[in-house]
Amino acid sequence: MAVPILAQVLAIEVVMGERIDRCLAQQLPTISRSRLVKLIEQGQVKLNGQICTAKKTTVREGDRLHLTIPSPQPLNLQPEPIPLDILYEDEFLIIINKPPGLVVHPAPGHATGTLVHALLFHCADLAGIGDILRPGIVHRLDKDTSGALVVAKTELAHQHLQAQLKAKTAKREYLAVVHGVPAESSGKIDLPIGRHPVERQKMAVVSQAKGGRAAVTHWQILERLGKYTLMQFRLETGRTHQIRVHSSYIGHPIVADPVYSSGGSLGVNLPGQVLHAHKLTLNHPVSGEIIEAIAPLPPHFLKLLHKLRIVHC
Predict the structure, then answer these.
(1) Is 90 considered catalytic here?
(2) Which contacts qualify for 1-4: CB closer than 8 Å, 24 or more apart?
């Protein structure tokens, strides 16, 4: 019989005056700032015994804060026996080589058949870790982007892994085939990304004054293939569609991207953008050891490279 997980109550004494959300973020580095803000808004924070729901409230030296982390909510999603390509697994986390076409978590139009449903079947205790519809999910990959993705199996691991992404100590490297050949062999794209001002289903380079969030992508040419290029991308931030938006903005959209590229599939049956999360490097949330997971390229990616090398060698 499973033992119920009780809510946690954390007591904090303020040592200097500042906004309440910033104070909590500094005192609790393993909990993401966004989650702390949600807990404040949900009435889970007390300031000197009184519930505080305003994240901009100023706290002063000597104030006392009590933060309640609620017990996990029951999950109504049904586990599904979907095969998983596992790159690494222990009692704290699991790293999956996600195939293209698999949606990471439930969303409108994808109520079943997601990676979360597969994980719930594979990991009996995953329910309740983090978001109720995204249990254990630390980061995500677009539906048609393949490759390495880490999932936490405990609340502590979830908080620790999210903190690594926030602190940029976790490294995510991608491979992609793009249109055209950049003039330089490597570079850095530092352009904010936000919701497209007109086409709301798309993201775009948007100034921070208009709601864009800082986004940094490092790139390097691995192989020139005639009118195409095999590129390596390294994320410094993790905005929605970041690589796809940045590469398109600099004039080298990813091949077969249905949203940000107008080019064809080059005669190869491609499921979507030729973008693959090739390597994920992180520190184990408990042992601290470095874990490097490498996801092999999917068949369609290999087939495209083979064809381009034959045509353009």
Answers:
(1) no
(2) 2/125, 4/71
